[in-house]
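*** Fold description ***
***
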Amino acid sequence: MSAKVMGINFVKSIIYWALYKFIYISNAIFGNGLTFEFPFLSNAHPVVLFFKNLLRPARMYGKFRYGQLGFLSRIASKADPVPKDIMEAARHDDQYDEYLRRFKEDGILILDGYFKNVAEEMVESFDGSKMSNSAAYYYDTYVINSLEDQLAFQMVADPLILGVMAGYLNAHPYLRHHSSIQSSYPNREQQELERLYKNDMRESKRILDRELKENPWSLGRELKEKMTALNKSRASGYKNCLWHCDTVNNITLGVLLKEATLSDTHMMFARRSHRNHHSQLLPLADYNYCEEYVQKTYEIINCVGSVGTFVAFDSNGLHRMNPKPGKLRMQFVWALGPGNTPHFKQLERGLFLTRKTDPTPPDLNEALQGQINFFRDFSERPQL
């Protein structure tokens, strides 16, 4: 290793140490008197988020690039304008303005039983005995191509829902990945999963600190890749049960295929947390928010309802799964965005459902009065 590279990596290790100090000091000053423990060091105070986004502006840049930061960002936006046909079809519904207002205000929209008939028919259309029923703390994902399945298409292409999402993004909404059925069958309580996550991240941090102590100029690509892989392999299963935010410019949409009550496994959302520009400075440290902080700072919305209940939320808002051991959650899900970070290959490893009968394809020529290009164009777009 050359002296130049050693010097650069040594400076990186000093910056790494300084960022940790910044996070701990800022939490002590702006943490509402709470004690923040590693690895739950995230804090949504405006002062803290200002400096975190200043130091790591990638998420803010992503929002600006696709017109999600106000008027000026829309002028320079890479996003496509909202198709007039989509908005005209949606505005014919008396509920459009109310749904859009609620979504913008809260960051989440829940419509109980909205897709009841379609959801019930979807459940009846596949062989549920082929789904995994082994208790675990991760998702089983069963891919469904919404362009080949009439039931999936009816939900994904619902004119009112499309219009609300387009109005929220103020841009042409595109599918970000294949639609799918997700089943979640937890085998542990949330508190135990939090403890396991904490122990794994602390062990990862000890490894990182030891390597930096023994070789302070080693904070290069190799070590970063190693720690990232370790983090993902240990935490990928149960980090979704801890408060976090996901990709910017993303709306996650789902339809319950099984009734969910407060005693069942379900998702929780921190109301209005989507208004904050969340950011992460350091691996292992400040991706997740602690339970006490979220409960004290936000009103919590439980995503429960009857079969067919529709849920859409801005994934920049804080959310987590509320696992109930032995309680299955099953939902049909998809995601929309203004054109950034498509993940159609992400679900290629997913499972495929065994159908009782062959799915009925939608009539693509008649669907949405020609608005089917809303989907087809995106599947042909190059990755941005």
